[in-house]
Amino acid sequence: MAGIVSSLRYLFADLIGDDDGALPFLPDNLPDGAAPVVSDGIHLLVDYQSSGYAQLYVERLRRFIGRPGVDAPLFCAIARLMAMRMSYEDPIRIAQLKLAQWESGAPHTAVEVRKFRLDELIGALPAAVADPVLDVLGRIGWLRKRVSMRFSISSRFAIRRLRLEAMLRRWRLFSVRYAEERVWVERWLHMIARALDKQPQAVSAIVETATMVQGLGDPYRQGLADWHAIIDGLAKPTFDGQLPLADLAGAIAEARAACRPDPRQAALKRTIGEIRARALASNTGATTQ
Q1: Three-state SS at 112
Q2: Which residues, in sequence order, are CB contacts of 263 under 8 Å at separation 6+?
Q3: What pTM, to 2 d.p., does this model score?
Q4: DSSP state, 200?
């Protein structure tokens, strides 16, 4: 609880602009070999958002320093994947990266065309602005409508546009998308903590589920939906004592192998149902013997 309160304090400081720009210190008592991974994460998130945002990353990591069951490789995996998810891809980030490309002296003819869903573009705006627009788009069925955007460094006008888009970084933490990502990261961390308490042999499998949620558009939404299906159908009921699943790691691997680019999740839901049925049948057989 203390770690969560501290994390919220640093997040609030970033939201109100109380960010002195100082690079966060590495946390004390890091596992052997973790310092370079955490340092890379800090530098990435300072560039992505701010030093306050990087401090939030550090505070989240503190929850696992010295915790029983968290060895150096596991800690490094958590640090690496959390930095990846906290620097999720959005139009603002793509503009930042194109500007960095220009500043590095890349050829000015470089043009990148990316396709976004309308809900992604609008979701990058502050919720007070985005929510009414998303409501209208939802009513007319346009949330998944795709729009192409050019990210170019081929002219002064293009550079100015990129700078304007990158300046929206300050508003990112008020956005609809950030609110969704914040909830996801905290739930992922919570599931890691529960695995450490309830089924330590499945912790690595829970950590690696972060790789399911990446990218933009439909693939991102599909990965997010699949992640929730696996957590809600297998991990959470196992931790709650409702599903007698002895090999959660194996079950997660089996379920992930059934993931398809299918909004209905037919194969995944069928596989999760089969895993649950086997676990319950096995437990029933054991109790009647």
Answers
A1: strand
A2: 222, 225
A3: 0.86
A4: G
Cα gap 226→235, rounded to integer Å: 13
Q: How far apart, in whole angstroms, are the C-alpha atoms of residue 116 and residue 131?
A: 18
Q: Residue 60 corresponds to which amino acid?
A: R
Distance CA 43, CA 51 (A): 9
Contacts of residue 69, Cβ cutoff 8 Å, sequence gap at least 6: 196, 200, 203
Question: Tokens 């346009």 appear where?
Answer: 142
**289 residues of the chain, pLDDT tens digit each:** 544 444 445 455 544 444 556 788 999 999 999 999 999 999 999 999 999 999 999 999 999 999 999 999 999 999 999 999 999 999 999 999 999 988 887 776 678 888 888 988 898 888 888 999 999 999 998 888 988 888 988 888 989 999 998 988 988 999 999 999 999 999 999 999 999 999 999 999 999 999 999 988 889 999 999 999 999 999 999 999 999 999 999 999 999 999 999 999 999 999 999 999 999 998 775 655 5
Q: What is 207-257 written as a DSSP string?
A: HHGGGGS-SSHHHHHHHHHHHHHHIIIIIHHHHTTSS--S-HHHHHHHHHH
